[in-house]
Amino acid sequence: MNILVCVSKTPDTTAKVDFIGDAKKYNEEGKQFIMNPYDEWYALVRAMELKESNGGEVTIINVGPASNDPILRKGLAIGADKAIRVDAEDTDAFFVASQIAAYAVDNGFDLIFCGKETIDYNGSLVGSMVAELLNQPFISYASKMEYTDGTAIVNRDIEGGIEVLKLKTPFVLSAAKGLAEQRIPNMRGIMMAKRKPLDVIPAVDAGSGLSIEKFELPADKGSVKMVDPNDMDELVRLLHEEAKII
Amino acid sequence: MSSSKTDKFQYHDYYVIDELLDENHLLARQAVRDWVKQEVSPIIEEYSDKAECPTHLFKGLAEIGAFGPSLPEKYGCGGMDEIAYGIIMQELERGDSGIRSMASVQGSLVMYPIYKFGTEEHRKKYLPKLASGELIGCFGLTEPDFGSNPAGMITNIKDDGDAYILNGAKMWITNSPVADIAVVWGRDEVGKVRGMIVEMDWPGVSAPEIKGKWSLRASVTGELVFEDVRVPKTHMLEVRGLKGPLSCLSKARYGIAWGAVGAALDCYDSALRYSLERIQFDKPIGQFQLTQKKLAEMITEITKAQLLNWRLGTLANNGKVTPAQISMAKRNNVAIALDIAREARQIHGGMGITNEYPVMRHMMNLETVLTYEGTHDIHLLITGHDVTGLNAFK
To answer: Nearest residue on chain A to B14, judged by CA atoms?
Structure first.
């Protein structure tokens, strides 16, 4: 079975958030970047497990500039067989989904995995768009997936419980916590990654007309005010007059 | 206030030395750091407190490829370069010197001599199992009465047909109580130092544990006692003289030079964070000049040591590194790490002596690292010998 895993580059969780260019662009200067954890820990690792039990090949794909190559190399070190980088700025979800769909159409995959969202923009869009573009079913927030002979049983986390779905491949799935467990690449994997193909392909035309107007940071959290537990009047006054929430 | 219970370590690279490293080095570093944060940091204080070796970590160390990472892939090893090996040791010691010791003994002192001086049969038999952690090894050179002067060793072998009869005792042997095999050095009947692979379940071999250590408490240390042990001649390594064990020590000391920087980084990182959070006289203590002096000197020494390691690694990759160059780096980096641990302890105030923070554990560990694998003073005399051509040992 051949699986395509979509991987994104995101700032490290400890990276400072600031913007440049009239607050239209995240400031990447001096920041550490990682593979989006939902893509790495759950989507890619579950794909590896499926490959290990069913055979086939795992391909990872990223849309972005050459500075994203370390992310792909890490995916190869974890065990993916080959990597594709669509050489273009990942301007918006539709553009990215169009690139992935175009590659998937030409190469035919039994499954396409992505993380449930990236930890920076939290869009949760690319997976569903890829599915739509490929005219395939889409399952979001998958926390468990079993596969036998072309049929999958997938658990989706829903409010207050779990939805269990059954469907045939091909389909697109977005991975949530629980789908697999993080795998740390080992030294042999890192060395083997150097010998695996990382192909750079040009982008297809897919303008969405969408552009970012600006980013805004949330207002600073105010200092904490301590209120005497016996002074309810003061608490009500503060909530009414200062916090203006009652 | 942050504590070591959640490992908040962030790397410090003041001179952007990462630009001198390649993709593999950075991937290896992140992988080992992730592993340490996941497997070592949550348990290390407890094991150190109990003076117990977390032996379950041998398997994890093997899985990430920390055993013999720079030996060839065909023996189940990593096939990486010397800088990658150094970086792995740095990240392990960032967690704990004892964990790094577990890996450097296995890789540099057991797998390396088997690779370098063993027969092809030895390599095939032992290296894949040592790399996978199926076998644990130890290294027997130091004796109760011969530490800095290994040439005086009294452990000896006597020819007995198709075997040698081994007698003697070794001391301060990391991993010996849990080891399956030992690379042992002893004199033959003509006085030459010979190396051999001893299996620990052979009759006459024992490895009593050394208790009561205030340092490397999460690492197991023991003796090796040999009483008329019959060592088949097929188990002898193909090297004669002290150059055999000393070349292994050069490998291990190289790893220690990198490892010590890991411990220093952890102490500095903890002290820096604490100094920004701890308020005294209505401001963070990091705003006081005396705290800044400590922090500035720490990062300066760390940066110098990182540059030393990078250059040492480059020389090692090119096959040009000398044992004396390794001595200089080992001596310097362990000394600065110990100073940094002590200064970091002061910045943490009273909290610094508790296991809420890693600094006192690192400090106590580094007291061992300062004198094992060649003492601080002996390494100085090696540099002295190297620059003057005059041997101060004799």
So the answer is: A30
